[in-house]
Each structure stands twice: as C-alpha cells, then as structure tokens.
Amino acid sequence: MSTLARTMMTAARSADSGLAGPGELDRYPYAEAPAADRVGAPVWEAADPELGRVGRRAAGSRGRGLHGQLVQQLGQMIVSGDLGADRPLVPEEIGQRFEVSRTVVRESLRVLEAKGLVSARPNVGTRVRPVSDWNLLDPDIIEWRAFGPQRDDQRRELSELRWTIEPLAARLAAGHGRADIQQRLSDMVEIMAHAMGQGDALTYSRADAEFHSLLIQLAGNRMLEHLSGIVSSALQVSGGPVTGCDRPNDAALGHHGRIVDALAAGDGTAAETAMRQLLIVHPEVERVVPAPREH
Fold this sequence. Notes:
The protein is built from 13 helices and 3 strands; from the N terminus they run H-H-H-E-H-H-E-E-H-H-H-H-H-H-H-H. It is mainly alpha-helical. A 3-stranded antiparallel sheet has the order 1-3-2. The longest helix has 23 residues, at 151-173.
C-alpha cells in the first residue's frame, strides 16, 4: 500500500475527533423582532433533546463549536418544516432554549441568512424564508434535506444533477494532460481498492469523493469546478436512490479504473461512457436517469 493510502486511512479514522474552537466575537448587530411580532413565535419542543443544551456539548459539526451546533440544529428545524416560512425567530428566545449566548445566536443567524434560510430587516426582525429563497446548492442545505422529510426528492435531484455534471467533466478532463492529477486519480483508485478489501467504508468514501472532485478539477472548466461541492455532498448523503458510487464493489472499482485509463489515453468518449456506467442507478429508481448514449 502506498504512503498516500496509509495517510488517508489514518486521517479517516481521526478526522471526527476535533476540539471545540474558541468563542465567536460579537461583531454583527442583529435586528430584533418587535414585541407585536412575537405572538406566534416558534415552539421549540421539536428540537432534538440531545441538542437542546448546546452549551454543554463538545465540538459541533465541522469543528465549529457551539456556533456550528446551533447552525446545524436551527437549519435542520427550518428545512424539516418544524420552523415554517415567515415564522419569527427571536434571538433571546433561541438563546434561552439552547442555553447559548447572544453572540452565538447572532453569528448562527448570520450564517443561516447567508444560506437564504432566514432574513433580518429593521422593524421586522428575523423570519424564516420560503423554500424558493433557499440556496439549494449549499452543502449544508443538501445534507439537511437529504436526512429530512424531503430526503427522496433531494437524493433524486442530486442523482439527476450528477448525471448532468460528471459525464461532461470526464469528457473534458480527457483533453487536459495533467500528469499530476491523473496520478492522484490513480492513487484514489488504489486507496478505494485497499479500503474495500479491508472493509473500511469511511476511507473508501473519502477516496471516492476526492476522485470525483479531482476529475471535475481536471476538466478545466471553472464553472463546473464551482459545482464540485455538490458532487461531494451527494456522495456524503448516499442512500435512497443510489449510484455505483454508493455501494463499493468490484464493478464500481472497475468503472473508476476505466475512467483513469481513458483519461491517460486522452479518449474523451471512453471517459464519458465509463462515467455514465458508474452513475447508472439501480433498477428500482431507473426512471431517474436516462440510458447511456450510444457513441
């Protein structure tokens, strides 16, 4: 096994043991809801009791401490519909419910506002925005939808989007002879093979995600590269409608290997075809993805 493979295997096992970061700075003013608008404020019983006392938990999601945990909890509640559109969000009430400071609440609401989930306006306060305003390509929102009531729609939409992005990326990548990236792609296939043999699903999935991210990078199209986070998110929320990437087996490894071989040969048609074969969904959801094109 290569040094790179050993490094990834070690990193995969230790990546989720992050420590809580320092407290956030109270840098941003935030609009308060007028007293009249506090009628009908959200009831927080729907929140996960394990996350209710955010201030007493360890490091939050993605290593962001209390701030990250509160973003995660509120985001999930909004996306699941527990906090419906136009509901007022009062910072004081959120702070009391989750036992966190006003600073943490304000920073968390700022993050949710950037994702399009909430809006804050003078004399109106902070309110939940309708789905049409959400940034549906945001990796966090993709994750929250994939594990909420909209899970089937989200996974179907991700499969359709990947079918649009990745075959084109594979074709374009064959025209760019970046030996360094092609070697890295070969390394990822080696790591995936070793991880599958060891039953190490975590290392396999991380090598798989890097393979697809590198492939989009190799395509040399900045707009496609901007969408690479969507592919990574799709791989992380596998389940429901699944592709060949989601169930490690010899066939999936073979398709990855054929993509690498086609890139090395500069054969865009073969690379695109191998990617389409990899992305074919299983029979029960075959309607989601069109049949591979004949060349």
